[in-house]
Amino acid sequence: MARRSKAARPAKESRLKSGADGETVLLVWTDYVGLARCRGVPVSAFKDRHAHGLGWAVAGQALTPFEDIAPNPWGPMTEVRQTPVLATETRIAIWDDAPAFHFALCDSLIAGQSWDCCVRGFLKKALADLERESGLTIAAAFEHEFLLTGNDLPWIVPFSVEQMRVVAPFTADLTRALLAADVGLETVEPEYGVCQYEISCGPAIGIAGADRAVIAREVIREAARRKGFRASFTPKPTPSSVGNGAHVHFSLVDSKGVNRTFDAKEPATLSRLAQHFTAGVVRYMPEFCALVAPSPVSYLRLGPHHWSCGYAAFGIQNREATIRSCPSPDPKKNAKAFNLELRPPDATASPYMVLGALVRAGLEGIRQKLPLPAILDRDPADYSDKERAKLGVRTLPSSLGEALDLMRKSEVVSSWLPDLMRESYVAVKRKEIEMFADATPEAMCKRYHDAY
Ligand code: GLU
Ligand code: MG
After folding, report:
1. Residue 196 CB–ligand 1 contact under 6 Å
2. 362 Cα to the center of ligand 2, angstroms
3. Domain 128-146+179-185+201-451 = CATH 3.30.230.80
4. How far is the CA of 245 from the centre of ligand 1 (A)?
5. What is the dihedral of CA 207, 209, 215, 221, to 10 degrees?
6. Ligand 1 atom closest to Cα of 198?
7. Is the pTM value of this prediction over 0.85?
């Protein structure tokens, strides 16, 4: 039998290119339930997929986070092309026990055009409208809170050095992986919950803000997996545990990337446009809650006194408000770095839906020239109902069902989504509600923990 001599073995570089090392490139997209789904091709075949991607039956958009599919208008034949956006290609080759983690995010296209139900397309259109009408775009950065389980992690004092060092081999990998993914890694830290951690990344402009969030989340999951942990981004791991938020820091920037959010002479040092933008977000927050906190468990997280947010309100450094403004301690930095934080979102929402809804709401504020809401210097829950009403502070919905009803009743918010997207989105969300109608909160939290 002829044996190939060692010398005949192709060099490592070409073995990699041919996929002989088993490397697969994942074509990744996120859906209505905020999960990253994928199809893979051998690395050697990726180039052939650049132009037209891979087909995907559109009925897949009706998937809940579980095995169930919501009622939908799609049959077995219609397909979108999940088409890779090459600027998002990410390859992390730091593990000895697995081939490189290699993927690219996709647009969902039909005949070369964005499909009406593509969440990335939803954000792109919102950004295009904002730019056309105001000359501005947004720079955005997500914070990623998650819970680690596995490896018999013990109870650990929150925020402690021990909480970091007990998982040091994981955070070392995670840091290397996120630096390789080029997502602007800023902090790696312990959070308040037992075995809860947080990663924050720097801002990216336009669609890249959401791309970066999807990439960071999947890299965190992978780094955890490789070390025998599981990272769960579920909004509420158990009914009584600390929640995981996905807060978004954002600023308005012009076409040259110059920050247009700050004006020292204006209330709360917000530029006029940023005041209108903020007002739009606060005005429509209850009505678009179903797009940014979109699962039944999201409403176990939202509520007063958890720093997650229970009211549509604005405040400077107010962690109980929908929008918290974040001035820098160094006032000289404010012109450049001044940003606002949207607090209600969680990771059961696709980052594209979150930023798309944020941009749409802010744009409504700009169109209607809405005035800046009251600047709350207290926890909104500490006012009486009467005082809140006088300040124009509304309560956020208390369940996904209520949030969906508010969205449907709002002509403005309903109009942000193409009809097909709105109807199919609501159907998936109603299916999730129905699935847990008779479940205990504990059982529901467990399922979402396992899915996210
Ligand atoms: N974990 C909190 C939430 O659910 C946020 C805590 C914080 O301010 O970082 O949103
Ligand atoms: Mg946090």
Report:
1. no
2. 24
3. no
4. 5
5. -140
6. 9
7. yes
**Distance from residue 195's CA to the centre of ligand 1 (Å):** 14
d(CA 122, CA 417): 8
Report whether residue 203 contacts ligand 1, using a CB cutoff of 6 Å.
no
Helix (H) or strand (E) run with residue 36 in it:
strand 36-42
With beta carbons less than 8 A apart as the criterion, state whether 346 and 293 touch.
Answer: yes
| Domain boundaries, given as residue ranges, for the chain | 128-146+179-185+201-451
The per-residue pLDDT of the chain, averaged, comes to: 94
Residues forming beta bridges with residue 142, ordered by sequence position: 248
Residues 83-130: tens digit of each pLDDT: 999 999 999 999 998 999 999 999 999 999 999 999 999 999 999 999
* Percent helix / strand / coil, the chain, rounded to 5: 40, 20, 35
What is the maximal distance between C-alpha atoms in the chain? Answer: 89
What's the gap in Å between 243 CA and the centre of ligand 2? 9
Please name every residue paired with 248 in a beta bridge, in sequence order, or none if there are none. 142, 342
- Find out whether the beta carbon of 307 lies less than 6 Å from any atom of ligand 1: yes
Q: How confident is the model at residue 386 (pLDDT cuts 50, 70, 90)?
A: very high
Q: Whose CA is nearest to atom 6 of ligand 1?
A: 307
In contact, 70 and 428? CB cutoff 8 Å: yes
> In this structure, which long-range contacts are made by residues 332-338, counting pairs with CB atoms below 8 Å and at least 24 apart in sequence?
334/262, 334/264, 334/269, 335/259, 335/262, 336/259, 337/251, 337/259, 338/251, 338/259, 338/261, 338/262, 338/269
Cβ atoms of 254 and 260 within 8 Å: the answer is yes
| Nearest ligand, measured from the Cα of 246 | 1
- Both tokens assigned to 116: 């009406």
Q: Closest Cα to atom 8, ligand 1: which residue?
A: 307
* pLDDT of the residue at 19: 59
Structure tokens given for 358? 């944020």
Give the up-direction half-sphere exposure of residue 417: CA atoms within 13 A in the CB hemisphere: 27
- 296 CA distance to ligand 2 centroid (A)? 21
Ligand 1 atom closest to residue 145's alpha carbon, by position in its atom list = 1
Atom of ligand 1 nearest to the CA of 309: 10
How confident is the model at residue 15, as a pLDDT? 46
Report residue 15: phi and psi, to 5°: -60, -40
